[in-house]
Amino acid sequence: MHAGRMAYKVTVRRRAVIAGNPGGDARGDFADAFVARAALKQKNGFSRVEAGLLENMNVAVLRVYSSAQSRTITIADRLRIEGPNLPAGDWAVDNVSLPDAARRHIEITVIQRIGG
């Protein structure tokens, strides 16, 4: 993965806070929060088969520049990723690494269910 090649557009989607909701929990539909650029590397299925982790999902690692907005990404968010050779649809955040201070990026593991 080349850190300088940010060929993918990532739209971070979060649940909207409904007015009058007790406790202030976000319970609405997913709405666009912000857009960022990212590099993406899809994990191949062969390594997952060797590890005994064959499942019906696509797994990828996103690398986004560390910023005030990108540091707020959590596993409760959904990402819409647009770019070359990528299946359409929303991706769920599986894991968010701590920001790398030296390289100024954050790696995010995302998954997308395939089929039913």
Shape: globular
Give a quick account of the main beta sheet: strands, pairing sense, barrel closure: 6 strands, antiparallel, barrel
Strand order of the largest sheet: 1-2-3-6-5-4
Mean pLDDT across every amino acid position = 82
Element-by-element helix/strand order: EEHEEEE
What low-confidence regions span 5 or more consecutive residues with pLDDT below 50?
Answer: none
Q: Give the number of DSSP strands.
A: 6
The end-to-end distance, rounded to whole angstroms, is: 30 Å
Percentage of residues in strands: over 45%
The gyration radius over C-alpha positions equals 15 Å
Helix content: under 10%
Q: Which structural class best describes the helix and strand composition?
A: mainly beta
Structure description:
By secondary structure, this protein is mostly beta strands. 5% of the residues lie in helices and 49% in strands. It has a 6-stranded antiparallel β-barrel. A hairpin with an 8-residue loop joins β5 (90-96) and β6 (105-113). The longest helix is centred in the middle third of the chain and has 6 residues, at 45-50. The two termini are 30 Å apart. InterPro entries: SSP1_head-tail_sf. It comes from Methylocystis iwaonis. This is Head-tail adaptor protein.
Task: Sum this structure up briefly.
By secondary structure, the chain is mainly beta. It has one helix and six strands, in the order ββαββββ. The protein has a six-stranded antiparallel beta barrel with strand order 1-2-3-6-5-4.
